[in-house]
Amino acid sequence: TFSAWSSAVTDGGNLSASPAAAMLGSYGMAADINDNNPLYVMDNTPSSESHYRARFYFDPNSIVMANNDGHNILRAVQGSSGTLFYMLFIRQSDMYQVRITYLDDLLGYRSMSYQALSDAPHFIELDWQAGAGTGQLSLWIDGALRGSVANITNASQRVDSLVLGPYAGIDAGTRGTYFFDAFESRRASLIGGALADFSALPAAGTAPLSVQFSDLSKASEVITAYLWDFGDGSPLSTAANPLHTYSTEGSYTVRLTVTAGAHQHTTTRVGYISVAPLTDLIFADGFEANNLSA
What we know:
The chain is mainly beta. The chain is built from no helices and 25 strands.
């Protein structure tokens, strides 16, 4: 299942490739947390890297977490066990959040600030560099820079492997399944990503129903193309925020594809628009109830 990775710890299949986890392509990685055992994949292809970038897609998928429960979902390692930086996924104040902790050779482990995650798919990217008081670490979420640290003392540090998945710190108050997808690492250049997202108003009503669609997509580069499929057999639209009228009753699946640079992403919402028939009747009463009560 995880043949591209150097190794995997699946806890009897609780970590799996699944169509339900797909955010790009047809499959993603689903982590089914039903106990406190670790679940992760490991990549040993980094070769003593002094500059390391990584990007992955992540969806909390409404996983149940008690307040202040948190565990680690990403770890960069030097040698066999030296942790250079790791990412904590936590629920605080009824909100999902992530935080990166890194190693400074003079100051020890230091943490960046917490960053909020909505209960939706995201693409997360980090950029780590070693240096003699010039080391750096930056975090992007959905293409927006969320935090950056400079002047780290870590000249001798090198990335030799990367762990992805809930590998440590799982609490008994955390149960459910969340998703990873499209992991990629590089030595220097931006990886980036795109996520198609939209809203509709109104999403239900009687025919003919005019619906204003609003683009909510996120990307690391400028979105250059939109393609809407309204699900009713009408021509596709390339507008960013189209207005579309549904003429007949039915339940309609809407699909949006966005393109940003080399990145393309499609979001499909099944049965998203509901159109009821408009009846001619306004009111009728045959007085068969034998009274005039409402």
